[in-house]
């Protein structure tokens, strides 16, 4: 009889409970990312990325996106190239997450994220399995790149959360929704940058025209 593939997201657990349990089992000094990985029921990409994404959704946890961005990019990159088990370098595994962070994460997950678990379910699996996992990883990278930019983390964090939950629950609708939000947000940022650049060029040209420069 074949052995279960423990690194895969199967959707047969409560990911909200997993997040809350991190707070409940942590000591006064919090825990390292390596300890968080060790406490997971399974070493799945989706759950790891979701746990790293949740702090970006929690209000008042300043500076978090820049801290979690690198491990999320590493994990999503491994998914993109088809690696079956997640890996993080020792320097990241040894990074400590404070008790305050863990408490806020757990409280936020229980009070604000329950609907993710209630609404999501296995459906449209063609968008959540096989080739779609690599596509989801590409959209995760897109979302994470915009997360680490100052003052732009909320919307891409929602996209990243939807993508992670979609993979955990095998819910293609969530994956598609997360991909759509990530793409739309990245497009909006690019449009703003282009508009600013064109506007700045127009302003310089106008100034030179009236000053004779």
Characterise this structure:
With 213 residues, this protein is mainly α. The protein has one domain (15-211). 68% of the residues lie in helices and 2% in strands. It contains 10 helices and 2 strands. Strands 1-2 form a two-stranded antiparallel sheet. Helix 3 (45-57) packs antiparallel against helix 9, helix 4 runs antiparallel to helix 8 (131-147) and helix 9 runs antiparallel to helix 10. The longest helix has 40 residues, at 172-211.
Number of domains: 1
Number of helical stretches of at least 4 residues? 10
| Uncertain residue ranges | 1-8
DSSP strand tally: 2
Helix % is 55-70%
Globally, the shape reads globular
Mean residue pLDDT: 80
* H and E string: HEHHHHEHHHHH
Q: How can the largest sheet be summarized?
A: 2 strands, antiparallel
Q: Which strands sit side by side, in order, in the main sheet?
A: 1-2
Radius of gyration computed on alpha carbons: 20 Å
Task: Reconstruct the topology from this structure.
Layout: H1 15-25, E1 31-32, H2 33-39, H3 45-57, H4 64-80, H5 90-93, E2 96-97, H6 99-112, H7 114-119, H8 131-147, H9 154-169, H10 172-211
Antiparallel strand pairs: 1-2
Can you tag this structure with a few keywords?
10 helices, disordered N terminus, 68% helix, 213 residues, two-stranded antiparallel sheet, transmembrane helix
In short:
Helices cover 68% and strands 2% of the residues.
